[in-house]
Amino acid sequence: MPLPQPVLHPPFNIVRLSHVELAVTDLAKSRAFYVDILGLQVTDETSDTIYLRAMEERGHHCIVLKKAETAEARDLGFKVYSEDDLDRAAHFFKGRELPVEWIERPYQARTFRTRDPQGIPLEFYAQMERLPPIHQKYALYRGVKPLRIDHFNCFSPNVDEAVAFYNEIGFRVTEYTEDEETGRLWAAWTHRKGGVHDIAFTNGRGPRLHHTAFWVPTPLNIIDLLDLMATSGWVANIERGPGRHGISNAFFLYILDPDGHRIEIYCSDYQTVDPDLEPIKWDLKDPQRQTLWGAPAPKSWFEHGSPFADTPIIDSILKAQPIIAP
Ligand SMILES: [Fe+2]
C-alpha cells in the first residue's frame, strides 16, 4: 500500500509522546535499573509506585513504575497542545467509536484514556505538573545521563493500518520499510515533535510494546553505560548494540529491564520539522537498514515485547522475514 499523504492540519494537536506506565514485579529491582543504572530522577515514590523524569524534562514524569503481579505495559501517554485540543481529541476518538474514559492521574490535569483501532491503550492530557529545571544540576547526572524520553516502538499486526490511523491524527512518516513482494509496510517511523519519531510500528505479533527510548547526550554515554552494566551484574540485560541505525541514523543500544521491558538508549537522529520532508524508503532485505554497519539484530529483537494490559494479541498479517542474526 502506498504511504498516505501527510495530514498537516490534524483534528487536534499532539505535541509529543510524554510518558508510559510499566507494571513491574519487583519495584526495588526496577528502581536499581532505572535509577542507579540508567540515572533517571525520582520525582515521587510510594510503596507501590515510582515516578521518574529525565534530566531535561520539566514535566513530572516520563516513566511510572507500578508494582504488579504480572509485568505489562500500560497506557502510552501523549501531551496535546491545549485543553481545547484535549476536548477535540476526545471528540475524535468518540467519533471513531473508540472508548473514551476521563480518569484521575496524579500530577496530570484533565486526562482521558482510549485505545487506537489496533487496541494500544493511550492516554492524552494537556497539562502535567511542572518541576524546576535540573539540566544544569550536573551533580545529579548519573548512569547514561538520560536527557528525555524520545519514542515508543510497538509491534503491530498490521503496520499499514497503524500508519493510516496515526497519519490521520497528524503523525508524519519520516522513514519506512516496505516488503518488496507484497508492497506492504513492514515498519514505519512517525513523528509529531520534529525528530525521526514519537511512535514507530514494527511488523509482528501485537499490539505489544517493543521498546521505549531515551535520548542521551553522546554515543560515549552509551559506551559508559555498557561498561557500568557489564561490571555491576547487568551484563545479561544487554540485548543489542551498540551501533548506528540505518533508519534514523541514530546511535543506539537496546537493554532489558528486570521484567524484560525493552529500553533503547538513543542519540543523534535528525530534524524533521519541514512539512514537505520526503519519507525515506528502505527495503526489508537491505542489511544496512537495521544497523548501518551491517550487523543484523538478534532473533529476540523480532520476537520479544511487552504485552499491553487487557489487550488481545494477534499474529501479523504480513509474513515477510527480516534479516536475523544467526
Ligand atoms: Fe527505537
Keywords, separated by commas or semicolons:
single chain; 326 residues; alpha+beta; 2,3-Dihydroxybiphenyl 1,2-Dioxygenase, domain 1; 10-stranded mixed sheet; 8-stranded mixed sheet; 5 helices; globular; binds fe (ii) ion
Chart the SSEs and their pairings.
Layout: E1 14-24, H1 27-37, E2 41-45, E3 49-53, E4 63-67, E5 72-80, H2 83-95, E6 101-103, E7 111-115, E8 121-125, E9 148-156, H3 159-168, E10 172-178, E11 185-191, E12 199-203, E13 208-215, H4 219-230, E14 238-244, E15 251-256, E16 262-267, E17 280-283, H5 299-303, E18 306-307
Parallel strand pairs: 1-4, 5-8, 9-12, 10-17, 13-16
Antiparallel strand pairs: 1-5, 2-3, 3-4, 6-7, 7-8, 9-13, 10-11, 11-12, 13-18, 14-15, 15-16
The structure holds fe (ii) ion.
What would you say this structure looks like, in words?
The chain has 326 residues and is an alpha+beta fold. It folds into two domains: 14-130, Roll (2,3-Dihydroxybiphenyl 1,2-Dioxygenase, domain 1); 142-307, Roll (2,3-Dihydroxybiphenyl 1,2-Dioxygenase, domain 1). 16% of the residues lie in helices and 33% in strands. Strands 9, 10, 11, 12, 13, 14, 15, 16, 17 and 18 form a ten-stranded mixed beta sheet that branches. Strands 2-3-4-1-5-8-7-6 form an eight-stranded mixed beta sheet. The protein binds fe (ii) ion. Fe (ii) ion is lined by residues 151, 153, 211, 213, 264.
